[in-house]
Amino acid sequence: MTRAPAPTHDFTVVYAEEDLGPATAPFTCRPAPAGNGIVVEGECPRCHGRTRTEYRHGLPGTGTKGLLSWLAGRSPAPEDDAGALVREVHFCECGHPHPNLPPDAPAGCGASWRITTLLDGGTA
Ligand SMILES: [Zn+2]
Ligand SMILES: [Zn+2]
Prior knowledge:
- It contains 2 helices and 7 strands; from the N terminus they run ββββααβββ.
- Helix content is 14%, strand content 29%.
- The strands form 2 sheets. The protein has a 4-stranded mixed β-sheet. A 3-stranded mixed β-sheet has the order 1-6-5.
- The protein is α/β, with parallel strands linked by helices.
- The chain has one domain (19-120).
- The protein has helices at 64-71, 79-87; strands at 18-23, 27-31, 37-43, 50-56, 89-91, 111-115, 118-120.
- One zinc ion binds at residues 9, 44, 47, 49, 94, 96, 98, 108-109.
């Protein structure tokens, strides 16, 4: 936990379902360790926690090949997959149970946003 300096994760942010709109900070995506999807990582624009969301693919007929081959650099980025991730609404999953966290919600601050800058995090 002594890596690059980053804004402090504000644990006191009270949970609220708040749509922040387009986020300016870059997010990275890389293949999921299990190889059946991708992981999108970045910093929550609201609580500044490190949030990590896994998008599973591999269901029949969901365009798995296109997305994974694009991430592996074997084919040009298909407009629809890249566009889908950018259009996706992402929710804070920083892992911290913020105050007033509903029992059925994933641990986070409740913020949602859209990614405007998506970086290829590679396969490492
Ligand atoms: Zn958050
Ligand atoms: Zn948080």
